[in-house]
Amino acid sequence: MAAVHAAAMPEGEVWEAAAIAVQLALPGVFGLLDSRGGMVLARVAADEAEILALAVVPAARRQGLGAALLAAAEARAAGRGAAVMYLEVAERNAAARALYAHASYAFAGRRHGYYRDGGDALVLKKRLNPAAAAGG
Ligand SMILES: CC(C)(COP(=O)(O)OP(=O)(O)OC[C@H]1O[C@@H](n2cnc3c(N)ncnc32)[C@H](O)[C@@H]1OP(=O)(O)O)[C@@H](O)C(=O)NCCC(=O)NCCS
Questions:
Q1: Is the separation of the CB atoms in 105 and 124 below 8 Å?
Q2: Which end of the chain has the lower number of beta carbons within 10 A, N or C?
């Protein structure tokens, strides 16, 4: 997971393996890894869930992997009782914003100056469909 994250994220935003391991050990956190070069980390707390990280290596992009991982995380979270998924995305991250729009995420808020470069984060949310929930 850390290798995928490192290959996909810009310098300075990469999470070390140890940091990912710490997250995975927290209650409600789960990760999904696709051997083609994609990973997602998410957390479920009561009836809410959050995408902590979603990354696809450059060579595997625009083949539906990001969307598939997001959908799998949504299904897993719904299976664990989450009714809504939240995430944060940099306003300037056009690719990720396009992916989330494509996956029917809606604007829920803005965090001003959230990133080190002073950029804003957008908070997006999506209501999850319990009928689509997968086990786990
Ligand atoms: C964002 C990211 C995960 C997308 O992964 P991906 O596997 O390329 O996404 P998909 O192929 O599933 O794309 C699904 C849809 O999202 C939109 N999309 C994805 N990347 C896009 C881009 N670069 N430009 C425009 N639209 C894009 C498109 O609508 C696409 O459907 P289409 O290819 O049929 O047009 C990937 O670019 C990445 O890892 N980026 C760096 C890390 C990052 O920013 N993570 C998100 C942090 S919040």
A1: yes
A2: C
